[in-house]
Write the structure tokens for this entry.
Amino acid sequence: MGQTVELMDRITVNPDQCGGRPCVRGMRIRVSDVLDLLAVGLTTHQVVEELPDLERDDVAACLRFASRRLGHPVLAV
């Protein structure tokens, strides 16, 4: 349960910010921005250097968020 609470604290969705896309702690740093940096090969340390308002736990929360988002089953009707 602790991870779920932490994830909800770190990943926010506000319809009036960034088009309602998931962001990190209410900042205008989208989860997709963090994932894109990781996808091109940056390490967590490098992502935090690139986006100094982030913390290492924010990067981990972005990964957990994406994993949970993709982990939901899709039911075909």
